[in-house]
Amino acid sequence: MGGGDLNLKKSWHPATLKNQERVWKEERKHAEEQHKIEQMKKELMEERQLQELQRLQEESGQRKRSDRLDWMYAAPNQGAGGGNNADEMEEYLLGKKSVDNLIRDKNSKETVASSAAERFAVSNANANNARDIQSKIREDPLLMIKKREQQSLRVIVDNPFMLKELWNGKKDKRNKKRKYEHGHSSHPSIRHHDKDRKRTSRGYHKRIS
């Protein structure tokens, strides 16, 4: 039975479709980077040739120096870390760094700035909402009454003497209620006895009359 090449089932084998696709993507990415580097080298060379031509014309007196467009060439080096930008550009042109890293760094800085602004806006909105809720709670009379009741209950619970007096008062009320109910339950027999006496008395008076 021919099982074929078992190595083809291994994830590390270069002949697998997934690995071939990965190699193709890496080669394409490398080719794009080389194209970008060559394009930047070409632009830099043309710029240097133009600057050299302008310098020769100025030395020969054919034209005067104009600084109106110098800001276009100085722009990448302005601001904090301008020297680092020049060194980085040189490394990109020499192929020591990937051009995608430059784009990625720029995008990451913009993302960090935008996310920081969004977090600041959200925190301000949350703070405003929290202050609104707190002010509404403070102004609600029902909540204020409930809060006072809770505070009073907390004072009683934390004070054992007040808690004992409250418990004794409840016991006295229960005892009085039991005595009242017990006494009230004995009244019907007394009332029946009084009624019988009244009936007998009325019958006696009728017979006499």
Protein architecture, described:
This protein is mainly alpha-helical. It is built from six helices and no strands. The chain has helices at residues 17-59, 70-74, 82-93, 99-139, 141-158, 160-208. The relative contact order is 0.03. Residues 171-181, 189-209 have a biased composition (Basic residues). Belongs to the CWC25 family. Residues 1-36, 168-209 are annotated as: Disordered.
What topology does this entry show?
Blueprint: H1 17-59, H2 70-74, H3 82-93, H4 99-139, H5 141-158, H6 160-208
Question: Which key terms come to mind for this protein?
Answer:
209 residues
Give a brief outline of the structure:
With 209 residues, the chain is mainly alpha-helical.
